[in-house]
Structure formats: structure tokens, C-alpha cells
Specification:
- The chain is mainly α and 305 residues long.
- The chain is 59% helix and 0% strand.
- The chain is elongated, with a radius of gyration of 26 Å.
- Among the domains are: 121 residues, no CATH class; 45 residues.
- InterPro entries: MTERF (IPR003690), MTERF_sf (IPR038538).
């Protein structure tokens, strides 16, 4: 492929430095056959097996487009089979639209890598409503769209009507009033299922002997509680707290961040050190302090005991 052809080809594959425009183009797809350099990328892909000699140029160009952008084409095609039939013009339109919303070219590999479904989204019915939601429901200014989307790319694959608005309504009913915090710090809560994720985790906190009001207070103070696994986090940590640490439930109410610390790397080792020293320390002091601060706390309490 000549230098001129390569430049034209890359331009057609979303590498243009022109001002973003998300109107689909009508230009024909390049008919130039791919030369040796692209083959080094393309032949590693499963679609390039020797048994698939009749693979279309359009698919080859699409794979190259993804690879040039830094996206694992095999993973993207596996997670989103619709990519096989979408046009390069459509991909260009999606990319141009996101850039028009302030998303940078360098952000796209991570965003599309995490959510390849975005590449076959409908701009009018899927993507535009998300940005309207950010603006109208979360009060996010246009110049901060990038910050929110980079924090949680899954927003772009979530239905505003069926997911984002119901989650926001539920969270506000619980007492989440800080829209800025939801947008910039905890947007993952908005893409979490109310029925299958948020409600079950609140119910589990209540099952530990905590009232509904106290459980709400805990998640408001530590929103990360909604992101922890019941089986892999809550259950083993609460069991250790109750049976090994002989913990008081009031401590968990006061320090819900307990569940954010690693059981094996922080909770158990620190508890063992406290038991050896024979001193009594608040749960927050045991876990929040650095290693040096923790040793100092033990030394000071041993001297004063």
C-alpha cells in the first residue's frame, strides 16, 4: 500500500484529525487490498484462519480499524457480534459523535474495550438520551461529559428509561441527594440493577441485625457498599467480624467502610496484631491507619495500659 493510500485508508478508519462531525458519510469504502503491514495485525485474528479465504474486505478493514484504535478486535467481535455487519461509516459516526461530546481520541480504546456494544449503538435512540440524562437529571455541564463517561463507560450502554432513571429515583429515595457525587464519584450505582443488585445488598445489611434506617445511613456514608459482592465480601467478612473478632454491631454501623478492606491482607493481620498486643482499639483505627501509624497506636496503647 502506498503512503498516499495508507493515509486515505487510515482517514476512513476514524483516524481523521478533522473537526468531529457525526453525520454518516456517503463515501465509498476503500477498495485497496491490504498489504504486508496490516497483515501482521490481521492474520492473528481468528477470522483470518486459512479456512476463511473468502472473508470480505469490509470485515478486514473493520478489524484493522479496531486494532489501529488500540482495541482488541477479537474480544470486541466476540462480545458484540453485531460489529460483523455494521458499516465503517456507522463506526465513524459513533466516534465522531462521541468526540463532539468532548470525548478524546485517547479515551476511546478503553471505553470501547470495556463496552464494545457502544460501537453498534444508535446515536438517536441510545446515545443521545444518555447525554440528555447527564445534563438534565444529573446537572452535568457539557465540558464535564468526558469525566463522567471515563469514570463509567457503561453509562453509554444503559437504557435511560429502563435503567438510569429508575436507579436514580431509587437512590434519591434512599437519601442520595448529592447529584455531583453520583455523577463524578459513584456513577456505577446508576448502572446497577435496582432489583438484582441494590435492593438485595440493602436487605443483606438488614439481615445482619441492622434496621432499615441504619442500613440506609450506612450506604449513604459508604456508597461502595452497593458495589460489594454478598457472597465474596459481605458474608465472609461479617462472619469473621462476628465469630473471630467478637465485634459489636454498633461498630459496623459507625464504620461501614470495614467491608471495603481486604479480609486476608488487612482485616485478619491487623486483628491478629491487636490480639497479640492485648490492647483495645476502635475498628476504624485498626483498619484506616497506615502500617506505621498502626504500629505506633499499638506501642502507645501498650505503654498506657
Amino acid at each position: 500500500m502506498s503512503a498516499t493510500a495508507a493515509t486515505a485508508f487510515q482517514s476512513s478508519l476514524c483516524i481523521s484529525s478533522q473537526k468531529p462531525s457525526f453525520s454518516p458519510t456517503n463515501s465509498q469504502e476503500p477498495k485497496t487490498h491490504l498489504a504486508s503491514k496490516p497483515k501482521s495485525l490481521l492474520h492473528k485474528h481468528p477470522l483470518y484462519s486459512s479456512a476463511r479465504h473468502n472473508i470480505s474486505l469490509q470485515i478486514k478493514e473493520k478489524i484493522l480499524c479496531l486494532e489501529i484504535m488500540g482495541i482488541d478486535s477479537g474480544k470486541a467481535l466476540s462480545l458484540n457480534p453485531s460489529l460483523r455487519t455494521t458499516s465503517l461509516d456507522s463506526l465513524n459516526s459513533i466516534i465522531s459523535f462521541l468526540q463532539s461530546k468532548g470525548i478524546h481520541q485517547k479515551d476511546l480504546p478503553r471505553i470501547f474495550g470495556m463496552c464494545p456494544k457502544i460501537l453498534t449503538s444508535n446515536i438517536k435512540t441510545d446515545l443521545n438520551p444518555v447525554f440528555s440524562f447527564l445534563s438534565q437529571d444529573l446537572n452535568v455541564p457539557e465540558n464535564n461529559y468526558r469525566k463522567v463517561i471515563n469514570k463509567c463507560p457503561r453509562l453509554l450502554t444503559s437504557s435511560v428509561r429502563d435503567q438510569l432513571k429508575p436507579a436514580l429515583f431509587y437512590l434519591q429515595r434512599l437519601g442520595f441527594k448529592d447529584l455531583e457525587a453520583l455523577a463524578y464519584q459513584d456513577p456505577v450505582l446508576l448502572v446497577s440493577s435496582v432489583e438484582h443488585t441494590l435492593i438485595p445488598k440493602l436487605k443483606f445489611l438488614e439481615s445482619m441485625g441492622i434496621s432499615t434506617g441504619e442500613a440506609k445511613s450506612m450506604v449513604l456514608r459508604c456508597p461502595g457498599l452497593f458495589t460489594f459482592s454478598i457472597e465474596n465480601n459481605y458474608k465472609p467478612k461479617f462472619e469473621y467480624f462476628k465469630e473471630e473478632m467478637n465485634g459489636n454491631l454498633e461498630e459496623l454501623k459507625e464504620f461501614p467502610q470495614f467491608f471495603a478492606f481486604s479480609l486476608e491482607k488487612r482485616i485478619k493481620p491487623r486483628h491478629v496484631e491487636v490480639m497479640k498486643s492485648g490492647v483495645k482499639l476502635p475498628l476504624a483505627n485498626i483498619l484506616k491507619s497506615t502500617d506505621e501509624e498502626f504500629k505506633e497506636l499499638l506501642r502507645n496503647n501498650e505503654v498506657n495500659s
